[in-house]
Amino acid sequence: QVRLVESGGGLVQAGGSLRLSCAASGGILSINVMGWYRQAPGKQRELVAGITSGGRTTYADSVKGRFTISRDNAKNTMYLQMTSLKPEDTAVYYCNADLLRIVDYRNLEVWGQGTPVTVSS
Hints:
Number of helices: 0
Helix content: under 10%
Number of strands: 11
Largest sheet: 7 strands, mixed
């Protein structure tokens, strides 16, 4: 089965850095768009950053200048480098991908299980 697995979350002090990874596997022909979302307790899930297969990126205003999204197409892996972390960045971070499956050439949108990030003040 196609799956996305996030890793790299954890506890960090304000001002610190963290790097999240999202590995896609399971018979993928190609991945069009990948993105990072986050959801804090009591809040809606929001887009943090997105990246196309060609490397075009978009960021939420709240993280612009602090976070950097990237991807390694050969490894079907996406990263989120987070710097200057703030307590308000605390949330569960989810990986999302729009991809083409090998077995039937079907376009799918897939979510990872999430990885928690906690930023202490």
